[in-house]
């Protein structure tokens, strides 16, 4: 199936306030206008008729027009990490060739330019955001993009070569391609495990993300930004919330669900996901902000709300050594959520594990202070 012609584009604004293009490999770039608010009429785009043609192994970028394959803009957000070059290389080696690779730098440009432009590929564009967080950087890249589709990639993740090909093929097979988000499974690093164990297959998305699923006690739901592919107009119509510093992918998914957007999953691993350390240490204010997000975003009296606070928020607070925040999270889950025995068991095991991690790290810190070399200890007497 071919892409049903160019989607309706939004009017452009002559003054780009949020970001500007800094470098494009192989050519000089001037600031590019950023589109204004998107036109929602694309959500009514009908599915074209006909038989699906075989997907070729290589797709060159083609100009806009009817009866063609959709073009893909890759948006990579970065803080200038050294592994950015690997993410860019994984986008350049796709069997479905992207139209452009937009690297949005949320820090000074000097290091990022050399990392991203090492290949001198003319499709690479580096732009600077204003240091306002990953979601702001994603929105800037999406606004600058010119492809029909947007594929997001974090700078510490890497795509397998067939990632875009598999996802574009699934999108074109959808009954409503203009209002569909396609994701895929991932290989977690370190460890090499494939997640999620159970792909999303319908129903309330919050239940899938936050409830326990018998017989698996290990957290098994993973829908992460580096797996996202969707129409650009959809990403413009439903932008990422820029006031969030955590739960950014979850929040966007739940917002898309409320807008009646479909979620399809390619049931195979198509990228490597660099998993953060278990829980991560967070301040009390950070934890309280996460709790406020969950109370605002998840339905009261639901198993999803219970699952979030009991099996995610409580262990995370314990891992950070915030016993008060852990107690509040557990209380909120029991009081405002709907009890689920399997989720409660998972939360208990995660909490025990988190306490062990927190105790172990505290012990390491104490030992490191008391085992300093004799020459570095203060003299007494």
Report what the structure shows:
The model is unreliable at 5-66 and 362-381 (pLDDT under 50). The strands form 3 sheets. Strands 2-6-5-4-7-11 form a 6-stranded mixed sheet, sandwiched between helices. It has helices spanning 84-92, 109-116, 134-144, 163-173, 205-210, 232-237, 248-258, 284-297, 303-319, 323-336, 341-370, and strands at 12-13, 20-24, 34-35, 72-78, 100-105, 124-128, 149-154, 158-159, 180-189, 194-195, 229-231, 262-274. Strand 9 and strand 10 (194-195) form a beta hairpin. It is an alpha/beta fold and 381 residues long. It is globular. Helix 8 packs antiparallel against helix 9 (303-319). The longest helix has 30 residues, at 341-370. It folds into 2 domains: 12-274, Spore Coat Polysaccharide Biosynthesis Protein SpsA, Chain A; 284-370, no CATH class.
The level-1 CATH class of the largest domain: Alpha Beta
How many distinct beta strands? 12
How much of the polypeptide forms β-strand, as a percent range? 15-25%
**What ranges have pLDDT less than 50 throughout 5 or more consecutive residues?**
5-66, 362-381
* Strand order across the largest sheet: 2-6-5-4-7-11
Considering DSSP H and I runs of 4 or more, what fraction of the residues is helical? 25-40%
Query: In the CATH classification, which architecture of the largest domain applies?
Result: Alpha-Beta Complex
The overall number of domains is 2
Radius of gyration (CA) equals 23 Å
CATH homologous superfamily heading of the largest domain: Spore Coat Polysaccharide Biosynthesis Protein SpsA, Chain A
Order of helices and strands: EEEEHEHEHEEHEEHEHHEHHHH
pLDDT averaged residue by residue: 75
CATH topology (level 3) name of the largest domain: Spore Coat Polysaccharide Biosynthesis Protein SpsA, Chain A
- What is the overall shape? globular
Number of helices: 11
Main beta sheet strand tally, sense and closure: 6 strands, mixed
Which structural class do you get from the secondary structure elements?
alpha/beta
Distance between the termini: 84 Å
């Amino acid at each position: 199936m071919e892409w049903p012609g160019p989607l309706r584009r939004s009017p452009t604004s002559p003054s780009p306030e949020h970001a500007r293009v800094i470098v494009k490999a192989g050519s000089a770039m001037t600031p590019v206008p950023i589109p204004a608010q998107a036109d929602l009429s694309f959500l009514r785009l009908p599915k074209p008729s006909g038989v699906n043609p075989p997907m070729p192994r290589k797709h060159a970028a083609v100009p806009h027009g009817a009866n063609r394959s959709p073009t893909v803009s890759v948006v990579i957000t970065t803080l200038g990490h050294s592994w950015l070059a690997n993410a860019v290389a994984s986008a350049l080696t796709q069997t479905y060739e992207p139209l452009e690779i937009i690297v949005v730098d949320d820090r000074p440009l000097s290091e990022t330019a050399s990392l991203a432009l090492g290949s001198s590929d003319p499709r690479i564009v580096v732009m600077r955001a204003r240091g306002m967080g990953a979601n702001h950087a994603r929105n800037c890249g999406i606004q600058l993009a010119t492809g029909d589709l947007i594929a997001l990639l974090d700078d510490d993740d890497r795509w397998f070569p067939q990632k875009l090909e598999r996802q574009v093929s699934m999108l074109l097979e959808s009954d409503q391609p203009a209002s569909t988000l396609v994701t895929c499974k991932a290989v977690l690093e370190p460890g090499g495990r494939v997640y999620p164990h159970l792909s999303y297959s319908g129903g309330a998305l919050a239940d899938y993300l936050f409830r326990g699923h018998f017989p698996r006690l290990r957290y098994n739901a993973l829908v992460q930004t580096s797996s996202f592919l969707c129409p650009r107009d959809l990403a413009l119509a439903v932008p990422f919330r820029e006031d969030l510093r955590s739960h950014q992918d979850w929040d966007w998914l739940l917002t898309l669900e409320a807008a009646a957007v479909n979620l399809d999953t390619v049931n195979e691993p198509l990228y490597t996901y660099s998993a953060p350390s278990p829980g991560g240490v967070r301040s009390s204010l950070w934890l309280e902000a996460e709790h406020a997000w969950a109370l605002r975003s998840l339905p009261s009296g639901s198993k999803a709300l219970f699952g979030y606070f009991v099996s995610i928020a409580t262990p995370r607070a314990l891992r950070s050594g915030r016993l008060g925040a852990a107690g509040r999270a557990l209380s909120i889950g029991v009081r405002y959520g709907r009890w689920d025995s399997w989720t409660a068991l998972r939360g208990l095991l995660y909490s025990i594990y988190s306490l062990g991690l927190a105790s172990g790290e505290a012990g390491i810190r104490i030992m490191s202070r008391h085992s300093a070399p004799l020459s570095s200890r203060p003299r007494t007497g």
